[in-house]
Write a structure and sequence with these properties.
binds geranylgeranyl diphosphate; 2 strands; Farnesyl Diphosphate Synthase; 1% strand
């Protein structure tokens, strides 16, 4: 199918109110995170304040929303998926805190606020990231466990997505590619790891919390992989088309540090077509759900059309 038709084929159920869905899911996730994390008054207060500062700074909560939506698509209950949704958000926030450090991207702005190390200093920011990563596993361990998916499966899933073969590995490849000219397949390698792995893990964990069938897990993996790649292509596009105020983080940073991105390698128009094609593949992956994955469809469309 030509790229244009593929883009037009992205038409999920129009009656689904995604804004209301995302708001409800973000509120529920925020309440759960607040309950899971040590209060800001617990000693040593600096670390708990620093963890909470970045966690509640106003992220879009896309990974938890994907986790909860995947659980629902498989007939599961939101409450059972919640510890896993919170765990992925803790890992995501840790990665952002560390990514912003002077030793990495050296950024001043994140989620519309000064970055963690700007407020608390570098040492505390490193520790806040470390503590959030550890907190993720503490929270995930509090899930119920399911007949087909034990606590061991859940821990393995989270550890593999965030370790040196995926999230951390992607960040290493990204750092090493700065200032170099790389191929599209090398860029895909980076995106699969630094972005798609955790998004895919979020979707898979949602399915696992609903004790999903092996066929459903394969479909969710396919969906999460493609949505994750589309998410990063759009992120690259937004970096050159939006302002820092719109993004809540420094815009134009990729160009400034000569980061390899889709717009830099194939241009903006081709990047938009690639994102639409990836979203279409994500949609197609949901076929086995026969219309019962409306929230996942709507989130995929939002990922493609988002402006921040
Ligand atoms: C330091 C181990 C380590 C890893 C860092 C996540 C990451 C790897 C780096 C952040 C830079 C970046 C652009 C990563 C790709 C993932 C991504 C697009 C993050 C931003 O996610 P959003 O837009 O952020 O969901 P919010 O703030 O809305 O949660």
């Amino acid at each position: 199918m030509p790229a244009r038709c593929r883009a037009e084929a992205v038409t999920p159920c129009k009656s689904f109110d995604l804004a209301a869905y995302l708001e409800k899911s973000a509120s529920a996730v925020n309440r759960a995170l607040d309950a899971f994390l040590p209060k800001a008054t617990v000693k040593p207060v600096t670390i708990h304040r620093a963890m909470r500062y970045s966690l509640f700074a106003g992220g879009k909560r896309m990974r938890p929303a994907l986790c909860l939506a995947a659980a629902e698509a498989c007939g599961g209950r939101r409450a059972e998926a919640m510890p896993l949704a919170c765990a992925v958000e803790c890992i995501h926030t840790y990665s952002l805190i560390h990514d912003d450090l002077p030793a990495m991207d050296n950024d001043d702005l994140r989620r519309g606020k000064p970055t963690n190390h700007k407020v608390f200093g570098e040492g505390i920011a490193v520790l806040a990231g470390d503590a959030l990563l550890t907190q993720a596993f503490e929270i995930a361990a509090q899930c119920r466990g399911w007949p087909c998916y034990s606590h061991r499966d859940i821990v393995l899933e989270l550890a593999r997505a965030s370790g040196s073969l995926q999230l951390v590995g992607g960040q290493v490849a990204d750092l090493e590619a700065e200032g170099k000219s790389i191929s599209k397949s090398q860029l895909r390698y980076i995106h699969e790891r630094k972005t798609s792995a955790l998004l895919c893990c979020s979707v898979r964990l949602g399915g696992m919390s609903a004790n999903c069938t092996p066929r459903q897990l394969v479909a969710l993996t396919d969906f999460g992989y493609h949505v994750g790649l589309a998410f990063q292509v759009i992120d690259d596009i937004l970096d050159v088309t939006q302002t820092s105020q719109q993004l809540g983080k420094t815009a134009g940073k990729d160009t400034a540090v000569q980061k390899a991105t889709y717009p830099a390698i194939v241009g903006l128009d081709r990047s938009r077509r690639i994102a639409a094609e990836l979203t279409q593949l994500a949609f197609e992956a949901l076929a086995p759900f026969r219309g019962r994955a409306q929230a996942l469809e709507a989130i995929a469309q939002y990922v493609l059309r988002r402006d921040r």
